[in-house]
Amino acid sequence: VSKNYNVTLKKGTLEVTPIKLSVQLGSASKTYDGTELTNNDYELKTGYLLDGHQIVINPMSTITDVGSWENNAVVTVVDTFRGNENVTDCYSIAAYKGKLEIFKRRIEVTTQTGSKTYDGQEFKKQIVNTIGEGPVSGQEVVADFGEGPFPINAGIYHGDQIFVNVCNTASNGDIVVALIDDSATVKTFYK
């Protein structure tokens, strides 16, 4: 039968394109506590995974100190039916960075108040209370006073050190250590 036909073969092309995925990496924030912040969460925004395929997030970003950082990660896809074989090449992945952010811990320090009649002796008061979240475990607030000016009649002098304990309130007239920007300062507290 083929003698009745003039057959010309034109080769076509077959192309398998990767599945397009867009992945939003997770964001996280917390108040400074001295521990590392990372986030492996993600949301699949567009696309789909074949049965048995699973996204694996390998974080590249961590943050421990106050500040913010982009949450970046290597995104791979594995086939759980084949012993977690890497099948990332079957996908075209667009990963969108999240954000990691650590906020400053709030600490205000108050001193004792007191008075005495002049007797020629130095009159000092220890700082005994802090307001706010206080220092993290294993850390303490120690203020070393160099040059003045110091709060009037506070009994704090050049070279003094203050040691801080935590409390929840301050009253008008209390001496507090307040964090302003990246510095601690001693002030008289008034509402």
List key phrases describing it:
mainly beta, 3-stranded mixed beta sheet, 191 residues, 0% helix, rod-shaped
Structural class: mainly beta
Radius of gyration: 32 Å
Terminal residue distance: 104 Å
Task: Tell me the fraction of residues in β-strands, as a range.
Answer: 35-45%
Report the strand count: 15
* Largest sheet descriptor: 3 strands, mixed
Mean pLDDT over the residues: 81
Shape, principal axes of CA atoms: rod-shaped
Poorly predicted runs of 5 or more residues? none
Bin the helical content: under 10%
As laid out across the biggest beta sheet, the strand order is 3-1-8
- How many DSSP H or I helices? 0
Order of helices and strands: EEEEEEEEEEEEEEE
Compile the SSE list and pairings.
Elements: E1 19-25, E2 28-31, E3 42-46, E4 53-59, E5 67-71, E6 73-79, E7 85-86, E8 91-96, E9 98-103, E10 107-111, E11 127-132, E12 142-144, E13 161-163, E14 175-180, E15 183-188
Parallel strand pairs: 1-8, 2-9
Antiparallel strand pairs: 1-3, 4-6, 5-9, 6-7, 10-11, 12-13, 14-15
